[in-house]
Amino acid sequence: MLKMLKKLWCYVRHVSGDDAYEQYLKHHAEFHQATVDAPPALSRKEFFKLWQDSKWKGINRCC
Amino acid sequence: MNKNIKTMLWIAVVLLGAFAVAGIALNRGESINALWLIAAAVCVYAIAYRFYAAWIAAKVLVIDETRATPAERLDNGRDFVPTNKWVVFGHHFAAIAGPGPLIGPTLAAQFGYLPGTLWILIGAVLGGAVQDMVTLFFSTRRNGRSLGQMARDEIGVVGGSAALIGTFLIMIILIAVLGLVVVNAMKHSPWATSTVAATIPIAMLVGVYMRNIRPGRVLEASIIGVVLLLLSVGLGGWVDHHETLRSLFDHDGLPLAYGIILYGFAAAVLPVWLLLAPRDYLSTFMKLGTIMLLAIAIVILRPDMHMPAVTQFVDGTGPIFGGKLFPFVFITIACGAISGFHALIASGTTPKLLGNERDIRMIGYGGMLLESFVAIMAMIAATVLEPGVFFAINSPAGVVGKEAVDAIAKINSWGFAVTVEQMQQLASDMGESTLFSRTGGAPSLAVGMASIFGSAFGKELLALWYHFAIMFEAIFILTTLDAGTRVGRFMLQDLLGNFNKKLGETSYTPSVILTSSIVVAGWGYFLYIGVIDPNGGVNILWPLFGIANQMLAAIALCVATGILVKSGKLKYAWVTGMPLIWLVIITTSAAYEKIFSADVRVGFFAAANDMAAKLAAGTLPTDKVAVAPQLIFNQHLDAYLTMFFVVVLWVVILDMVRLCLRYLGGKPVLKLSEVPHEPSRLVENWVRD
């Protein structure tokens, strides 16, 4: 039961974008850390700005 | 053994579904329980999803789970991200489900519960869900390209431009009609107006919280926002009982419309993070929460539906909007059955998140089925009301008269029982001064929801439930209004960028102000006309919106059919061709009626001529004389706009047919723009592990 609730909570966080920064850090570590001249990871605030702006580029709400 | 149990289970589902559909279709005279509708819907969806959608995925589209999706190939951690299928489903559903499936069925309930329900079920499983799924599939195979780009690449420049113009116009009409719905819900209701007004600073507070106070803490901020929204409903009640504050929020339609226009402009110009993004979070949470609550309440309460299966208004004399059952029920219910707007979401945003092609059925087809289910619930909420009450709320003053006594007499003459006292009691229960002629569907839906919630969770709080429902509808109507205005602005800037580079820059202030003003002026005009129209405006704007939305769906199905034929799958082209033909029939005949019908409540020209004649003869009442020239001009404009929609639709169709004939005749056509196959590493890894 507790496991289920935990899973649900993870889902809610994921679907709402609450954990977007953590996902980004994971992605960054996976793809960019290997190269020497890799750019440092963005701060939470910087990342959130970029993430929010890119999310609102196209048509994302409907009738 | 296991297989046998499964077969038995599916036979049971088919039998229950057939029994439920037959039950609701053949029932006459007595009221019927809403659970029958739910049972019929769930069985139809389950069968369609298990068999039809699976067959389309396997045979028609030939979904390939070993193929890398654009999210995997182009993964950049931001817009292209392979995402868990349930998360993509959540995003996709939140994006496609707006106020449309709540309003359309409410209006179409004037024909009785049966026609709308059947169209919602059949239209969704054979049309809408198919459109969403195939568009999602084709866009995924083309790096998440938008519908307009796919139309240009696959059919030609004509198709591409038509899709673009169609999208822009549908946006203008949609925003106008949604604005009108909100205005009608707030008119002379200090409670509703103050609650809706409070949502703006609440959204801004949430925006600042997410951006600066605790960056990226989306859930925290949303929870604070939702709590504040719920408090604002209670606060609205306090404002309503306060002498001076009350008068601050008690307005006619016109000032409220100006307020909404001003708000729309501000929302398009202000940075996204301050108003649009936080409002969107709040509206998504409210929407999902309320819909779930409604579903639970319906199951607990099992209300009876009091509306007859079919009313006499199938002959075209309905008070809410004029026009016969065919084609107008199919135009009135667009979202919930088939909605072209979804093709814009299914191409573009969603494919960029898709981790594997096998999820396309669940997200594309399944997402639409869930939206269709929302439409069924809206139909239930509308038909659990006594028909007399339903018509008293939804009939415009221009049809039933301004005075309560006249309206009641008129509604009684149609054979629906309702009294002035009953309406007064209902209005005071709901904390409103009157509920007569509150057109647009939102108030009657709110009354329906309040009575369902009230019966399930406590009757004392009816007024709170009513205004909660109004707030819930208003918040995501306003989200669509903001987002739509902004998208319109971007499209216009994109277009102007072809002529002047500077104007195409999305952050260039003069361009932002210019394009936002044009878009807001576009929908603001239709909103203004809708408010001054004594017949309520919804009866003009909603069919126009329906025609535009179905036209966009037809364009999406054209693109899909063209691609199927070009891929050598002519024998499966009926999968998209059949709903396409049906859409062409209904949009063309609806447009024909709206333009040429001699009935003044249907035909635009007939209405304009009728009003012009009355104006010339001096038989119009004085308050109508002032607005008559504007209304006449608007009727003409609407007629030409409808003609334009039909012409655009036919141009795209003929272009698509030309392309198919060329292909079948062995002549050269535009090459398929599908991205070549690349094996998915995600699947390999998974297999290796």
Question: Could you explain the architecture of this structure?
Answer:
- With 63 residues, chain A is mainly α.
- Chain A has helices at residues 2-16, 20-31, 44-55.
- Chain A is flat.
- Chain B is mainly α and 689 residues long.
- Chain B has one domain: Amino acid/polyamine transporter I.
- In chain B, helix 7 (147-154) packs antiparallel against helix 8 (157-186), helix 12 (253-269) packs across helix 22 and helix 16 crosses helix 21 (442-457).
- The two termini of chain B are 31 Å apart.
- The mean pLDDT of chain B is 92.
- Chain A binds chain B through residues 11-18, 20-21, 23-24, 27-28, 31, 44-45, 47-63, and chain B through 75, 77-79, 81, 84, 86-87, 90-91, 95-100, 146, 167, 174, 178, 210-211, 215-219, 222, 272-273, 276-277, 280-281, 334-335, 339, 341-342, 344-345, 348-349, 479-480, 483-484, 486-487, 490, 545, 549.
Map the helices and strands.
The complex is a heterodimer of chains A (63) and B (689).
Chain A: H1 2-16, H2 20-31, H3 44-55
Chain B: H1 2-26, E1 32-33, H2 34-60, H3 70-73, H4 85-96, H5 100-108, H6 113-140, H7 147-154, H8 157-186, H9 190-213, H10 218-240, H11 243-248, H12 253-269, H13 276-301, E2 304-305, H14 325-332, H15 341-346, H16 360-383, H17 387-394, H18 397-400, H19 404-413, H20 420-429, H21 442-457, H22 462-496, H23 509-532, H24 538-566, H25 574-596, H26 604-617, H27 622-664, H28 681-688
Antiparallel strand pairs in B: 1-2
Helix pairs in contact in B: 1-2, 2-6, 2-16, 4-16, 5-16, 6-16, 6-24, 6-25, 7-8, 7-24, 8-12, 8-22, 8-23, 8-24, 8-27, 9-10, 9-13, 9-22, 10-13, 10-22, 12-22, 12-23, 13-21, 13-22, 14-24, 14-25, 16-21, 21-22, 22-23, 24-25, 24-27, 25-27, 26-27
